[in-house]
Design goal:
Pfam families: ABC_tran. This protein is 39% helix and 24% strand. It is α/β, with parallel strands linked by helices. A hairpin with a 2-residue loop joins strand 4 (58-63) and strand 5. It binds adenosine-5'-triphosphate.
Length: 242
């Protein structure tokens, strides 16, 4: 079966630095896959490439088997995403921001209203839907971003540090939501620094180090945090010996 999302041989140079150095990654149907790595490892850059927000210097990005270039905006619209700015228009209400995102995905906001209501309830966001985003706390803005990314039940979702700033109740609700989406066949790529959370929700965790995937861990088999540190330390040791 064709993968939902494939990144192959991705190379990116930014500001004279090699940020991604031949990154390969495959997201299967119904899979929750995570990218972990130290600050600056290239996680956000990889997601931006996956979404067609950044053109790689080399390599290919395939969405459901089709190269996303030369129409990256189309691919971007087909994928649920939250990378960098959770809610784009601070003067608009949370609901208007969410509706804008739904329209960006080519859907009718009224058709997605029940789903927005369900996600808002689950994430504890109902009371804030009609407030301007500029008045919302950081965690509440994050919820706006998550609802915007998931309201249209995307076949592929790409989420950068989705649980940042969420309260514990919202973290649990978000985890349930990811599992529900994956159970329906959606594929989800996330980044996070929260290993406990990743161990609970991910099917596979890729360790990104200096722009390359150096290991893939199945979290239910092993202590994720320990394997991460061992893998990164061993890679650095090898580099020093060269
Ligand atoms: N526009 C840019 N110009 C130059 N360098 C950049 C640019 N964007 C990112 N970088 C560099 O690319 C590297 C990877 O950044 P990226 O944001 O992808 O890392 P990350 O793994 O997401 O980090 P973090 O865990 O801190 O979020 C960093 O060294 C960063 O400084």
């Amino acid at each position: 079966m064709t993968a939902a999302l494939t990144l192959s041989g991705i190379q990116v140079r930014l500001g004279g630095c090699e940020v991604l150095r031949g990154l390969d990654l495959e997201l299967s149907h119904g899979q929750i896959r995570a990218l972990v790595g130290l600050n600056g490892a290239g996680k956000t850059t990889a997601l931006r490439v996956a979404l067609g927000m950044l053109r790689p210097d080399a390599g290919h990005v395939l969405l459901h088997g089709q190269d996303i270039w030369p129409s990256p905006a189309e691919a971007w619209c087909r994928v649920g995403h939250m990378v960098e700015t959770p809610a784009a228009y601070p003067e608009l209400t949370a609901r208007a921001n969410i509706d804008n995102a739904i329209m960006l995905h080519g859907m009718d906001p009224s058709g997605c209203a029940p789903r927005v209501a369900q996600l808002s309830r689950a994430l504890g966001m109902e009371a804030h839907l009609d407030q301007p985003v500029r008045r919302l706390s950081l965690g509440t803005r994050q919820k706006v971003g998550l609802i915007s990314a998931l309201a249209h039940e995307p076949s592929v979702a790409v989420l950068d540090e989705p649980t940042n700033g969420l309260d514990p109740l919202a973290v649990v609700a978000f985890r349930d939501e990811l599992r529900r989406l994956a159970g329906q066949g959606s594929s989800i790529l996330i980044t996070s620094h929260h290993f406990d959370e990743l161990a609970r929700v991910s099917d596979a965790v890729d360790v990104l180090h200096h722009g390359q995937v150096i290991a893939t861990i199945t979290p239910d088999e092993r202590d994720l945090e320990k394997v991460f540190f061992d893998t990164v330390l061993a890679a650095d040791q090898q580099l020093q010996e060269i």
